[in-house]
């Protein structure tokens, strides 16, 4: 009596319309330890494949109704990792070649010799195991790459967050040095970003625009107090020193890779649309758009804030001055975008932000 296959025996599906062939192959493979299911048609084979996962299918090529080619195509579509061995009649070489071309693992002439059949099964299952191992390795490798990429992204965000916290502290110290409230820098950030949104600046650029606005006066760290805090008019020599701060600030920021964009904005924030600014006398669209936006926001905040040499102007007077200087000091498009902000929104933007709210305006990438 043939030995019953073990519970972990490899399942094999045999498909042939000839009952004698099915029975012989089933007995032979059962004696060799395989768990065999035998069916008489391609349609019955598909039904069996839907309910059971077979690593290997042995199918006749020529069958009534749907033939072995049809079944092979369906198996490739539904279960690409299932190995298929085709049985062909003697002399049917074209059919054998077509089977291999369509994805069959092997073919045998009917009736197959036992040794040839067992070797073909072992080869097909071996190649299948190797292919599955490669897929698992590839999937594992891709998963490890995703995990490492995620870890690196988190590390970069943490580093950028640390940079940002340091920058906030530095800006607060600079504001305090000029006897400004720390909210001066925060206000110009809020005004600048509000105008940037109205002009359609892409959201991916908001972080750099916000940082440039925040750090616009970082170069004043190199300006002596006697000049920076002087309540009266500056002498020509003092103006030479004061006008170095955009380039000084830009040079400081360029040492940090992720601040290259803000560095350019800091360098250009004192340029004028008509070419009368400094340090490079740029004009029109030669001035980067973020710097043109910032010029309007910063001037408005300066006019509506108390300074050592004058009292703050009212909102209406400040808006009228921006309108008057559109086309000379300011890019008219940026001035119009700023003036489109209603007074209620300007008042909201001018109010001190709660802790952490400003950082959320341009988070780490």
TrEMBL record:
The keyword Transit peptide does not apply. Pfam families: HD_5 (PF13487), Response_reg (PF00072). It comes from the Bacteria. InterPro entries: CheY-like_superfamily, Cyclic_di-GMP/3'3'-cGAMP_PDE, HD/PDEase_dom, HD_GYP_dom, Sig_transdc_resp-reg_receiver. The keyword Nucleus does not apply. Residues 159-354 form the HD-GYP domain. Residues 11-125 form the Response regulatory domain. This is Two-component system response regulator. The lineage of its organism: Bacteria, Pseudomonadati, Myxococcota, Myxococcia, Myxococcales.
């Amino acid at each position: 009596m043939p030995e019953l296959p073990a519970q972990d025996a490899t399942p094999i599906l045999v498909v042939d319309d000839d009952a004698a062939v099915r029975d012989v192959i089933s007995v032979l493979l059962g004696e060799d330890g395989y768990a065999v299911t035998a069916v008489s048609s391609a349609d019955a084979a598909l039904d069996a494949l839907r309910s059971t996962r077979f690593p290997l299918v042995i199918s006749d090529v020529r069958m009534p109704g749907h033939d072995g080619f049809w079944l092979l195509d369906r198996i490739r579509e539904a279960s690409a990792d299932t190995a298929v061995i085709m049985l062909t009649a003697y002399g049917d070489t074209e059919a054998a070649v077509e089977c291999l071309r369509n994805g069959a693992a092997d073919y045998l002439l009917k009736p197959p010799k036992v040794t040839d059949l067992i070797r073909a099964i072992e080869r097909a299952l071996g190649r299948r195991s190797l292919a599955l191992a490669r897929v698992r390795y590839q999937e594992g490798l891709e998963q490890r790459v995703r995990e490492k990429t995620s870890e690196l992204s988190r590390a970069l965000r943490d580093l950028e967050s640390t940079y940002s916290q340091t920058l906030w502290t530095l800006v607060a110290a600079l504001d305090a040095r000029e006897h400004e409230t720390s909210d001066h820098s925060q206000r110009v950030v809020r005004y600048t970003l509000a105008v940037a949104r109205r002009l359609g600046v892409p959201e991916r650029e908001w972080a750099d625009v916000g940082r440039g606005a925040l750090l616009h006066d970082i170069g004043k760290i190199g300006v002596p107090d006697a000049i920076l805090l002087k309540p009266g008019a500056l002498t020509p020599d003092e103006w030479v020193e004061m006008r170095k701060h955009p380039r000084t600030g830009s040079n400081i920021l360029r040492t940090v890779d992720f601040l290259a964009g803000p560095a350019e904005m800091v360098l250009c924030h004192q340029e004028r649309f008509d070419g009368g600014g400094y340090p490079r006398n740029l004009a029109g669209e030669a001035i980067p758009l973020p710097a043109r936006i910032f010029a309007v926001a910063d001037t408005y905040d300066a006019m509506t804030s108390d300074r050592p040499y004058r009292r703050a102007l009212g909102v209406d007077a400040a808006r009228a001055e921006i309108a008057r200087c559109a086309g000379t000091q300011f890019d008219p498009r940026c001035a119009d975008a700023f003036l489109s902000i209603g007074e209620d929104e300007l008042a909201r933007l001018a109010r001190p932000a709660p802790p952490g709210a400003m950082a959320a305006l341009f988070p780490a990438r």
